[in-house]
Amino acid sequence: MDSSTEHAREAHISFTLSGGAAGQLIEYLEKNYRTRLWTDLPSLVETIESISRDSTSYYPHLEEVLVHLRLLHNMLVEHMESEEAKLFYPIRRAEKEYSPIKDGDNLKQLVRLMEYEHELIKEGFLRIRHLCHGYHLSFNDAVLPELYERLRSCESLFLEQIKLEYELLFRRLLRKMDDRPETG
Predict the structure, then answer these.
(1) Where does 84-180 have alpha helices with state H?
(2) DSSP helix/strand/coil, 182
(3) Reduced to 3 states, what is the DSSP secondary structure of residue 183?
(4) d(CA 152, CA 120)
(5) Which candidate, 24, 14, 150, 7, places its Cα nearest to that of 94?
(6) Which of 10, 25, 83, 161 shows the smallest number of beta carbons within 10 Å?
(7) At residue 6, does pLDDT exceed 70?
(8) Using 50, 70 and 90 to split pLDDT, how confident is the model at 50?
(9) Is residue 33 one of the residues assigned to a domain?
(10) Which one-letter DSSP state was computed for residue 84?
(11) 63 within domain boundaries
């Protein structure tokens, strides 16, 4: 059995993005996006809870926004934990140990699952945007502009993060997996 067949059978893929670049990208995403989302979403939930508690009749749409934001927060936490444990950790380990990532077929399915979850979370943000009338106010208000800006910022942060993940990490990872030798 030649080494390329053995390599493919074990479902290994080589994934080194120019000397640890994937790990560096993951660190960048964590520092500049994921950590902020991890703290911003709970803070937004608390803010909306407070506004709703004090002014339910004045801002009735915020009750439904709160339901969707809590759901979105739970989805995002679960997604980020799964992504870290099942995708980012193996990439970091492979780069640190200068070894291939094992079980490439499962990893490919996981990338597709992460992309699907990204779409679901985007839909959640779009639903909140819709409930908040595109974050536009038709009246002068002292409370909503800051809240809407925070919601908009959180949505933008997530969209930027997934764009970087897809374009710089997932696409490259999938291409590497598609390029591995076929078993014969």
Answers:
(1) 89-97, 104-131, 144-164, 171-178
(2) coil
(3) coil
(4) 17
(5) 14
(6) 10
(7) no
(8) very high
(9) yes
(10) I
(11) yes
| Beta carbons within 8 Å of 111's beta carbon, 6+ residues apart | 87, 170, 173, 174
Residue 148 to residues 35, 43, 87, 132, 177, Cα–Cα distance (Å): 20, 13, 33, 8, 41
Find out whether 130 and 119 touch, Cβ atoms under 8 Å: no
Counting the structural domains of the chain, the total is 1
Contact between 159 and 129 under an 8 Å Cβ cutoff? The reply is no
Q: H/E element holding 36?
A: helix 35-55
What pLDDT does 63 receive? 94
Residue 35 lies in a domain: yes
What is the pTM (predicted TM-score) of this model? 0.80
Residue 122's domain spans which residues? Answer: 3-178
Tens digit of pLDDT for each residue in 82-96? 999 988 888 888 787
Rounded-to-integer distance, Cα 61 and Cα 52, Å: 9
In a domain, 71, yes or no: yes
Q: Which residues in 142-156 are b (16+ Cβ under 10 Å) and which e?
A: eebeebbebbbebbe
* CB 33, CB 157: distance < 8 Å: yes
Distances (CA, A) of 139 to 87, 136, 142: 46, 9, 10
Looking at residue 67, its pLDDT comes to: 96
Q: What angle do CA 126, 130, 132 make, to 5 degrees?
A: 115
- CA–CA separation, 51 and 49 (whole Å): 6
